[in-house]
Amino acid sequence: MASVLVYHVVGDLTVGKPELVEFHETETVESAIRAIAESPEGSIPVWKKRSVGVIESSDMRQMRFVGILSSFDIVAFLAKSQCLEDQDKAMKTPVSEVVLSNNSLLRLVDPGTRVIDALDMMKQGVKRLLVPKSIVWKGMSKRFSVIYYGKWPKNPESPSSSSSSLPANVNRNTSASIRDKYCCLSREDVLRFIIGCLGALAPIPLTSIAALGAINPNYSYIESSTPALESSQKVPQDPSAVAVIETTSDGQCKIIGEISAIKLWKCDYLSAAWALANLSAGQFVMGVEDNVTSRSLPDFCVNSRSGGDNDSVNGGSKKPKKFSSRSIGFFNNSQSHSFGSRSMYRGRSAPLTCKMTSSLAAVMAQMLSHRATHVWVTEDENDEILVGVVGYADILGAVTKPPTIFTPANKSSEGIVNEIQC
Question: Is the pLDDT of residue 4 over 50?
């Protein structure tokens, strides 16, 4: 285990982080769409409102956390028949009716928590770390005190401190009342810290993801000919992504795209919802040309304000229009590929992939440069045959793995390929 993960603390990662602004479950779906556009990982934490006049402890704050709402959750909700029929009502729906409650996705931690301990939490499924900001954190200058004193420095106002560790002159109510400012660390923040310490983590960063055992073969997928809406029933919690595949004659999975929170992050939600409800998975991820759409697909209605038009009537009229993949927002006209007898757009809709022999450092750099939550893994000989996926949890597990238990890359490759069943 690299010492850099042991001697650094979570407080080191909070420098420059903005104060958390809570997004409450009473807010509307329309407000959530705006908030998600400014948040990492294409998702936002959702909270219950704080009771007025109540001095809140750390446990009470943790209990107010509801769950994490992603762009995929919103598009799947808007794709329901009742939402497509009344889009104005759907956009004004409170997010409490959309978000999946899961209180374990966020953990409130002390700034003095070791980075290695934070990684262990995230490997177990925690997606956000809530860290107090209003207390005076001196851990930056004391992070190596374990070497000299044999123990870690603890702030007297630590949310994780037990009652026995608090000094007698510290008033609990006072410390709780002043600790009203927090920042939120995402897994992307942790990954940025790790990639800045690659030298201290050697030889792990230059080792292949296959040798590290970082490839997860248990990914979710959907056939390209299947209705795209079925992807909303298969999406896992982490990563929030479903691969769209075609099965080859020899039974292998050929990836042609993905339906995921990160791809839907900054799309036109109403257009994407209509496409999810009416197109096949292949059409959804590859795109459909305007002239093909005009012959084979029906008109669809979107609220004029979300479509960018300014000629609305009575403030909320809907106008029929022909569907084009450009209207979703994550396609462009830079490249075209064939899908059956149709010409399809790729561009930014192409899935992010790497090979089994790619190094861990290369995969981390891919994820950060694209702000992605995962990378699909393909065979070395064929960059279209899907082998698995690498997500945050897989990377954090590989980073903390002792070098002595690395698996030879050739054995790992054979084992992973044999595990894949489409």
Answer: yes
Residue 362, φ and ψ in degrees, nearest 5: -65, -40
CB of 220 closer than 8 Å to CB of 244: no
pTM (predicted TM-score): 0.78
Rounded CA-CA distance 38/21 in Å is 12
Q: Are 219 and 374 within 8 A, CB to CB?
A: no
Per-residue pLDDT of 33-70, as tens digits, reads: 999 988 877 899 999 998 887 888 888 999 999 999 99
Q: Is 173 exposed, middle or buried (0-12, 13-18, 19+ CB in 10 A)?
A: exposed
Q: Alpha helix (H) ranges present in 279-403?
A: 281-286, 290-296, 304-307, 360-370, 392-399
CA torsion angle 209 210 216 219 (round to 10): 100
| Contacts for 411-420: CB closer than 8 Å, 24+ residues apart | 412/210, 412/211, 412/213, 412/215, 412/356, 413/210, 413/356, 413/380, 416/210, 416/215, 416/217, 416/356, 416/387, 416/388, 417/379, 417/387, 419/217, 420/217, 420/252, 420/253, 420/386, 420/387, 420/388
The answer on pLDDT for 419 being more than 90 is no
Q: Where are the beta strands (DSSP E) in 274-369?
A: 300-303, 318-321, 336-339, 342-345, 353-355
Cβ(255)–Cβ(353) under 8 Å?
yes
